[in-house]
Write a structure and sequence with these properties.
The protein contains nine helices and 13 strands. The relative contact order is 0.08. Helix 3 packs antiparallel against helix 4 and helix 3 runs parallel beside helix 6. Strand 8 and strand 9 form a beta hairpin. It has two domains: 135 residues, no CATH class; 132 residues, 3-layer Sandwich (Rieske Iron-sulfur Protein). It is α+β, with helices and mostly antiparallel strands. Belongs to the Rieske iron-sulfur protein family. It holds the Pfam family QcrA_N. Keywords: 2Fe-2S, Cell membrane, Disulfide bond, Electron transport, Iron, Iron-sulfur, Membrane, Metal-binding, Oxidoreductase, Respiratory chain, Transmembrane, Transmembrane helix, Transport. It is a multi-pass membrane protein.
Length: 351
């Protein structure tokens, strides 16, 4: 079919124009459609509905406060190791579950209350404003302040005192959850950093053979590692205790010991020093027999074991603590007390 055979009303615009047809008007795709007419909510026209919404929001804030109190109470009620069965989660920690549940509820209820407040009681009238330069003119500043005042008035924060007071209460209690989390830092160290398992009468046990050390087991120039008797590798706090109590046992010719106190605290040239470096707490294990120097493998701090284990090189801040030793009635090496200074790296309470 040719163009001449097509009905005129079905011709394209160009052909229709050629036949004298008028081009239909098209809407501007970039025209401002304007704002839809505002539809009032039930709360805008019925004060009873507004009061119901106010009570709903206040209830959420009150429940949030109760959840925060429950979070704090959970720390007191549930021990750390209590396990309970909760369907469908299975066996879970009672403390962790209660903390997560109560804190989640406290935060959710504050958010839900704020959203419900905004959607039912705050003004929902849409306002269009023209774009303006980034730098605010005095007139714009005045308008911003005026809009802020209008927003504060429309939020009804001053008039809805029940909502305002319960919201402030919920927001004030929630930070207490963070304070309670400080308990997870553990108990106060008290004097635990200054004390080890060594005490008068504690025998020195060879860490390789797990047998008590005797003076004849330690030859001149040898290096042996020891720990207190009674400490077992399967103990729950083994790593914590050995990190403070591990010893280096070295036998030096008495005439080669330069430090007077070191000689007095030794037994027939056998000296016992902490194995824990005083820089960052690495275990020391490299011994130079001819010079009686020990080297920390982490940062190369070097200590002279013939001169009170003083630092002769590296970043360590002070000498290795020495343990006073002797021999018991069975002929085994034993401690004559605990270290007189803290073991390991310096800490702020060190005195």
């Amino acid at each position: 079919m040719s163009s001449q055979e097509i009905p005129e009303e079905n011709l394209p615009d160009e052909q229709a124009a050629a036949h004298g047809a008028v081009e239909p008007a098209h809407d501007d795709p970039f025209a401002d459609p304007g704002l839809p007419a505002h539809k009032p909510r039930i709360q805008d026209i019925d004060e009873r509905a507004a009061k119901r919404s106010e009570r709903t929001v206040a209830t959420m804030f009150l429940l949030s406060m109760l959840a925060t109190v429950g979070f704090i109470a959970s720390y007191v009620i549930f021990p750390v190791d209590k396990i309970v069965f909760i369907f469908p989660f299975g066996h879970v920690s009672a403390l962790n579950f209660s903390l997560g549940l109560t804190l989640g509820l406290a935060l959710f209820l504050i958010g839900a209350g704020a959203v419900h407040w905004a959607r039912t009681l705050m003004s929902d009238v849409e306002v269009a404003d023209d774009r303006h330069a980034i730098e605010a003119t005095p007139e714009v500043k005045a308008k911003v302040l005026s809009d802020f005042a209008d927003g504060a008035r429309e939020s009804a924060l001053g008039r809805r005192k029940l909502i305002r007071n319960t919201m402030f209460g919920a927001l004030a209690l929630v930070p207490l959850s963070g304070v309670m989390l400080l308990r997870d830092l553990g108990p106060l160290p008290e004097k635990k950093l200054r004390k080890t398992l060594w005490a008068e009468g504690k025998q020195l046990v060879n860490m390789n053979t797990m047998e008590p050390l005797r003076p004849e087991d330690v030859v001149v120039g040898s290096l042996t590692f020891a720990m207190p008797e009674g400490l077992e590798e399967h103990d729950e706090d083994f790593q914590t205790q050995i990190a403070k109590a591990a010893l280096m046992i070295i036998r030096i010719e008495p005439d080669d010991i330069k430090d007077k106190r070191e000689r007095e605290w030794a037994h027939e040239g056998i000296v016992a020093f902490s194995k824990i470096c005083t820089h960052v707490g690495c275990p020391i294990s490299l011994y130079e027999q001819q010079t009686h120097h020990v080297l920390c493998p982490c940062h190369q701090s070097t200590f002279d074991l013939s001169d009170g284990a003083r630092v002769i090189f590296g970043p360590a801040g002070h000498a290795l603590p020495q343990l006073r030793i002797g021999v018991n009635s069975e002929g085994n090496l034993q401690a004559l007390g605990d270290f007189e200074e803290p073991v390991g790296p310096a800490f702020w309470e060190r005195g």
